Structures are given as C-alpha cells and as structure tokens.
Amino acid sequence: MIKKYIVAFVLCIQSIYAQNTEISITLSFENIDLLTAIEKIEEKSKYTFFFQDSWLEEYQSISRNYENADINVVLSDLFKDTLLNFFIIEKERRVILTRNNRIYDYLPDGFIIDEETDKVKENNIITQSQSFGNILSSKVNNAGSEIIRIGKSVANSNQKSFNISGRISNKQTQRGVADAKIIVNGRDLGVQTDKNGFFVMSIKGGQYLIEIDALGMERIKKNVIIYNDGTLNIAVKERVELLDEVILESEKNTNVDNTVTKTEIDVKESKNIPLALGERNVLKVATTLPGITTAGEGANGYNVRGGKSDQNLILLDDAVIYNPQHFFGIFSALNPFALGEANIYKSSIPVEYGGRLSSVFDLKTKDASKEKVAVEGSIGPVTGNLLAEIPVVKNKSGIMIGGRGAYANWILSSLDEESLKNSEASFYDAIAKYNHQIGDKTKIEATAYWSRDDFSITSDSLYVYGNRAFSLRLNHRFNEKNSVKVAASNSQYSFDIEFDGDADNDFELGYKINESELKLQFKYLYNDKIKLDYGVSGKLYEVNPGTLQPKGPESIIDPLEIEKERGLESGAFIASEIDIFKGFTLNAGIRYSLYNALGSGTQNVFQEGVPKDEGTIVETLTFDNNEVIKTYGGPETRVSARYLFTDDFSVKASYNKTFQYIHTLSNNTTVSPIDTWKLSDLNIEPQSSQQYSLGLYKNFADAMFEMSLEGFYKRSENILDFKTGAEILLNENIETEVLQGKGKAYGVEFLLKKQKGKLYGWLGYTYSRSFLQLDSPFDEERVNNGDFFPSNFDKPHDFSLVTNYKFTKRFSVSTNFVYQTGRPVTFPIGTFSFDDTEFAVFSARNKFRIPDFYRLDIGLNIEGNHKRNKLAHGFWTISVYNVLGRNNPLSVYFVTEDGEVKGLQSSVFSIPIPSITYNFKF
C-alpha cells in the first residue's frame, strides 16, 4: 500500500505547488564560489534556498551576467555544469536543491501500478524519472553506509542506458590497477580494467551493488545509484597474505586475445639466458624468437621476416636509435637495467609508427622510483654497469641515472701477443630519465641517452661511432575517454675514422645523421567496443654524408666534403579497433605519409635510355635552402583482425603497407658500424612494402603452454643495393653506384613456449626465404641476369631452443641452442691471368652458402638468499658461450696474394668463452 501513498503525495505536490514563476532578475558576478552566487540570488529574488553546504564546495569559480532573466532561466544556467537540480515551491518562495536526483510534481509516462500485485511494472518511475530511487529500492545493501551517486538526472530524458567510466587505482601508490574486475551483483554484467586501470561500462539507471576484485588487492563492494552518464573512480588497498608460494598470473591469454600481434620480451627473465661474456642483451634474446635473425655472429643490425637491417625502427622512449649495438653486435648499446618493456611489431604494425618496412622495436625505460633510493649493477669480465633510482619529490617524481663501460683496453694491454698490445676495444653508454606525476591525469617524462665505441684491432685506423638521443613526453588524460600523448625527440648517429699510417696519407673521416621529430597522438574510448587512435607527426632529417680532412702537417690528402642532405617526413594517421560481434575484433587504420627532399643542394639529371654514370649527366639542378627537390608519399593501409574460437584459441590475419624514405649504403655482406644512410631524392626513390600474414594462436593447460603458427608473404619495391665493385663512401654521385630493385620474402614461424613450473623456456622455428631482383635493360645495371636471387640474409632454416630449469629458488641452469642455415655468399668459380698475376672469376651473386651455423651456450644462475632485511640482493651468473667450440664463419672472402687467389674465413668466437658476472641490487 505504500506505493499508493507515494502516488497521492506526488499528485498533492502537483496541485499545490505548480510552478508558475514570473520573477525576473538582473545581476552579475565574476570568479566567485557557488555559495556566494546563491546568496546574491537570494538577495535579489527574495527566494530562500535549501541545500547542503558540502554540495557546493567543488564549484569555486563562477562568472555570470543576467539581465531581466526569469528565475527558472537563471537557475537552469547556473546549475547546468553541476550535479545539482532545483525545485521551486512558489507559494512559499522556496528553492529546494537536490544532488544527482530530481523532485517531480507530475507522474511520468509509464508509471502504472498493478493493484493486485502491488508492484511497479517494467516502465516504472525508477527507470523513467530516477526521482524515487532511494524510496523504491528494497533496502540499502550491507556493503557499507556510503552510497555513491553518479550523474545528474535530466528532465524528460528518454535515455535508457548510461555510460559509466572510471579508474581503479592503488590507494598506496595511486597507480592504475590492471585487469581489475568490476562486477554488478545480481546482473549478468561486468567489465575489466585496461593496463592503466581505466574501464567503461554501459548500464541502465537505478541502484546497484558493485564489486571490485583485483589480484593482490582487497575485494570491496560499493552501493551505487546511476542517474546519468558519469564517472566512478575507486581506490583499493593492497591485500597482504602470507603464502608459501605466490604465482602471479596477469593477462594469461593476451597472446590469443590481442588483435594487434606483438612480441613481448620479459626484460627481467632475460638475465637467465646465457649470452656472450655474461652480458644481458634484450635484443639478442629477440633473435631467439621466430622471424628475427642477424646476418651472422658479430654483425650489427637485425633482419626481420626477410627484410634488410635498415628496415627496422628501433625506438627508446620514442627516440630513434640508429645503432643499438656495441662492438660489432656482441654487446647491446642499451642498458638492460634501465629497460622496463620491450615490444616488437613485425606483422600488424600500428598506424602511429611510420618510416620503416619490416618491424618496430619499441623499447621503454622503467620509471624511476618515487618512494625510495634503489641501486642496481653488475660486474663482469669485460663490462661494469651501475644504475640508480632517486626520488625527487616523494610519490610524485624520480630520476634514474645509469652508466656502463667496458675495460677491454686493460685486458688487451695485458696480453702477451705483441700485435694486440696497442689495440683498443672499449665502449661506454649512459642514460638518464626523469618522470613526474602531476595529479592523476598528467605525467611528464624526459629521457637522455648517449653511447660511444672506440676500436682499433691490430690496425693503423681508429674507429669511433656513437648514438645520442633525447626525448620529452607528456601524457594527459582529459577524462576517462580521451587522452593525448605529445612526444618530442632528437636522435643522432655519427662515426669517425682516424687513419695513422707510415706514409703521408693520414686522414680523418667523419659522418653524421641527425633527426628531430614531434608527434601528437590522441586516444578516444567511444565505448567498451570501439576505440580510436589518431594523430599527426613530423620528422626532419639532416645528413652529413661525409667529410675528409688531412691529419697532420705531412698529409697530402685533399679535403673533401660531400653535400649535405635534408628531408621532411610528415604523417597523419587514424585507426579504430571495433568489436564487430562476439569473438571477432577488427583493427583498421590508415596512415598517410608525405616526404619532401629539401635544399639547399644540387641534383643530377641523367640522359634517358642509357645507364646512369658520370658520363650520362645532362644537367645539374641547384636548389635553394628549404626548396622542395622532390615529393613522395601515399596512403599506408594497416588492417588486422582476430577471431576467438574459444578464450584460449584464435586466428589472426593482417595486411600492412609501408613506405621508407631513408636507406643504408653498404657493399659489405654484413652490416658495419660505418655504413652510411642516404635520403630519398630526385634519383633515389623511397622503398615500399606490402605484407600479408595469417596465424593460429593457442594456449594449453591454463596458459602453461603458448603455441603459435603464423605464415607471411611480403613484396617490396625500390630496395637499394649496389653495383658490383661500387665505391660507396665519400662518393659525390652516389646514384651512379647503386641499384633499386624488387624484393620478396615468405615463410612460416612456429613458437612453443612454456611459462610455468620449474622448467620454462621456448622452442622457435622459422622457415623463410628472402630474395632480391635487380633488373634493367642495361647489363651494367643488371645482377644475375635480372632474376631473383637470395639476399645476403636469406637463411631458410632457423631453430632456437631456450630453457631454464630451477632446481631450487636460488639455483637454476639455463641453455641456449641455435641452428641456422649458412647465409649466401659469392664464390670464385675460375681464374684468369693478366700481367703474370692471377685474378678470380666470380659466380653469380649469392649462388653459394657458407657452412651452417650452430651454437650451444650454458649458464648457471645462483641467487643470493632472500632475507628481507639484508642490505643488497646478489645474483651470480656463470656461463660458457659456444660450449661446443664451433668455428662458425662470419664471412668468407677471397684475396690475391703472391699471384694466387686464396680464400679466407673470418670468425668471431671459435672456442668456448667462459665468463662470470655478479649482479647486485639494493
């Protein structure tokens, strides 16, 4: 019977307090709080307001101007951006304020009561008006006395469901809680937070009991009343439990569920993989995974799915690193202690990345500790490493500073071999990062990086090369749906060669490339099924192709400086990830890239219908500073799709089209640190590629095992290569020495990974082929008769087995076994004599192969005891690299000595290399 009295009460209000106000108000105020504004209205209108003071505290800066305005108009405008509603009782000149809900003086449509059952039917006052939510709810749930009200009830609204967004955060650290479950009790409804703790859900209006459950956090329940769209932010406490063993599982089916396929490398676990001289190397770990390899042991660069090494975009906190290797690829140039994430995209490359054909290595440093000082380091047979994290403003900002260096010079000088005593082989790198959290919505990060290598092995030449990078990033969340990232970066790579011989031809040679980029990227979460990613970017390249200067007063070398190059690469991109139907998600996007080769400079025009050489130049064009020499560009389509058969089994497909406007110039069979970069211009066109991939992804035994099988096919255009006998370095007319052709690559990649238990690791196998075609109407510009031939890094079979077995919590043994088909080489197939000297006649390019490569490494890992109050935690790694002593050839080359052609083989490690490294952390 209570509902009948409610109806009578509403009808009574309607008849007695019908609103028919005709009061006009003239007043203005600027930058005052809402309470003061209401007091001014009371003074002018003689109305009395009723409310709770706490409702007005958050509204502190109000500016308005009203002239002869109706009281209803004034109040509607004043409260439009608040959670407050008003109800005027005209007879008593009173204004009743309510927060979230409304007071109604009429019965809304659909308010029908069944007298027999005494129940409100489906289209009742709760869902229509939201006004009697508290009165008609059966009871206040026992989750606590606090009731959270969301949104503002709007008169005459026909909206049935509302979008609730928010963030679940750690109460102690203020960081977002990933994979927290938000469950609506009594309803088949629930969502999960993303990696930053954000969520969005759609729900009908009314009162609910909502439960928040997250791994390692206390489970809590909240009474919530939904009036309209709004925000729900909840902080949860950490749950402390004493257990014998804790196994953390997060995103266990991510590899199956993600639409955009990426390879994630566990930075912490990489310490257990035995590598050369005990050094941690995340990028070397990547080469044990399917589809990623190198041209050989001791070669710089990486080859991904049959692509050249210059086709990989390697980023450190959004700044490009041109050469991420120390000492010919044996060591990483990136401090392993500073890295927090390592993600590799090799098939479905997101639209935000541009400028490379094969892959993106997106490396991110970890945030510096904002709570306490932390120090981490290692001491090995060749290198030493130290990294410190220091809070600047407690719980808000911190700085990380790390440095690493090699002391191989001291080792070389101690050897008995006279030829090595005067050699040099050292490297250094340093990194610094500052991160600052401004409130809950804004974060600023700045990263600076520097590296340098010096080497001179039994030679009269000193080689020096290094990277320098800086990036500044601002991440801001406008609300639960919109966020922005602004990133500015600058990168530089350079090398120098100092030749000091016995003759009068000593010289110094230098090369440098510099790039600066600004990127603006927005993310919009339309709802829990549709996400948008869009933005723009601009990058300026500046290349100094080389300078040659005489060294010392006795040198007769003529100075030479190759003309500088400049180019501007711009891009605009947009992508959307849409849940089409249950199990099927589509990620479709497009990037439009535009490249302008800029002056000042000169460009040669060649006679048509004849080969390009210095004798066929018909004109040299001159361009002023910033004048456009040539424009290239076009759309880059990126599409990927995923269909879930079950929660742990999916099929994925993708298509990528990409452009690349920068090339490496090299006539070495393996990548060298003195290879130069060349921008596209009037005579050298940008590279382009299209890649198709299809894969199956399956997890077994509650994600203990991951398995994937993916095939790919890639076609490329304008791949840069060189003419036979080309002179690359310090060539003023480089376009006469290079060729551009077609490439194709295809393959199948298999990965089986075990992630739990005492034994874990992975088995990877790739069958792939990579071919190049250099065809032309002219013989001197044609290679292998214009047919496709294997590229320098074509390795059909690539097998890796990485394991780690834990005997106890402190002792484990690791192995790393690698087998690869020998890469292609060009062999002499005959000789001829001229002037009493024998010369070689070579085969078609890359017709033969060097011997197959295989290597076994073993490591013993010993962790210190796990006492809680000890000053430092130690970790020993004892390893043997190349246990089998395999003399794997890096390259095979041929020289003429004493009138005879001789074949020579170069290797990096031909014997077992033991090492011991001590890691510490406190």
UniProtKB/TrEMBL annotation:
Keywords: Cell outer membrane, Membrane, Receptor, Signal, TonB box, Transmembrane, Transmembrane beta strand, Transport
Residue intervals of the TonB-dependent receptor-like beta-barrel domain: 426-862
Subcellular location: Cell outer membrane
Major location category of this protein: membrane
Top-level taxon of origin: Bacteria
Family annotation (InterPro entries): Beta-barrel_TonB, Beta-barrel_TonB_sf, CarboxyPept-like_regulatory, Plug_dom, Plug_dom_sf, TonB-dep_rcpt-like
Keyword Signal: yes
Magnesium in keyword set: no
Pfam families: CarbopepD_reg_2 (PF13715), Plug (PF07715), TonB_dep_Rec_b-barrel (PF00593)
Domain TonB-dependent receptor plug: 266-356
Bilayer topology annotation: Multi-pass membrane protein
Family: Belongs to the TonB-dependent receptor family.
Name the record gives this protein: TonB-dependent receptor
Source organism (scientific name): Aquimarina gracilis
